[in-house]
Amino acid sequence: MAMHSYPYIWNYLPLVLQVLAALGLAVGMVGASFLIGKHKNSRTKASVYECGMEATGDARGRFTVRFYMVAMLFILFDVEAVFMLPWAVIFRRLPAITGSRMFGFYEMLVYLGFVAVGLFYVWKKGILDWANDKGDL
Hints:
Blueprint: H1 13-36, H2 43-46, H3 65-89, H4 94-98, H5 103-125
Helix pairs in contact: 3-5
Protein name: NADH-quinone oxidoreductase subunit A
Enzyme class: translocase
Family: Belongs to the complex I subunit 3 family.
């Protein structure tokens, strides 16, 4: 039984081939789209999109702080869902995993406490009160 010796760097050959295949596929799809696709500007393409309102002003205008606060609120509750779903799926097995009967429950209570603090903060700031839009907070 003869062992073939080869450089260690060859272990990365599958990774390099996968990256090259992904790049080739991406370049191929963009190139095919450019070659095959229609490139005619029409009135329909230049018309307003989705909301039906004519665009006015510069698209790079300033946003109020409210916009960013709502975005952070969305992320807060999005992350909450991402953490709660796996927790709920394994909730019955948590005592065997952690060694404590109530650890998983208390752990989620602490996490929901942090979420509640975030919600209380944006509520007190008036972010959720769209009727009284104060512009910048």
